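Throughout our pipeline, every protein is held as a single compact record rather than as scattered files. Such a record has a labelled line for the sequence and another for the backbone structure tokens. The remainder of this section carries one protein's record, kept here as part of the documentation:
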Amino acid sequence: MTRQEIEAGIALRYRDADHLRFALPAVLCTDLAAASIRGALATVDGVWRVDVNARVGKLSVRFHESMCSVRDVALALRGAVVRAHESGLLEPAASATRAPPDVGRGGGQAASLARRAKELRARARIVMEVLKARIEADPVLRNVLNERTITRFLNELLAFYLIKVHWDLLTRRWLAAPLRHRYEWLAVVYLTYQLVRSRRGSPANA
């Protein structure tokens, strides 16, 4: 089958705010093709679950609409089909033991990230030990860098980070449909309350 014929066999059967269901042609329901599709869709920000039911030819995608759109999912699915077709995964003679490109590449990235995380943890421990020794030797730092000050600083840092990450979503989507995104707004209100509470300090420490 040509790539165009395979893409023509994909049909959107169900659409909801955070759930899409596609009908897949049989050629996309093999183990290799299904693994390639799952790997590609899992890389889309906002997609949190991908299921391929090969027996009935169904693809189910659940996602956070505030983070990605139906178009994003459709483009990722089309990209998976293109890569699978170009790499020969959809050919009848494709080896059942050969891992799809996305899976193999993902495994290498996972190992690299694990090594990088281990290095960062080791460096963080060294920095914390040096910082601890410096604080203990300086009475001024002991008074300034207490638990309350550090907690307040980290809370403010987290708040600014969340604002930066979600600014486009907040201004373009959440404000436009506040009822639809009521849970996001509840989270914003709660985090704002916690930030103000942190700055004022608890009654016991006032």
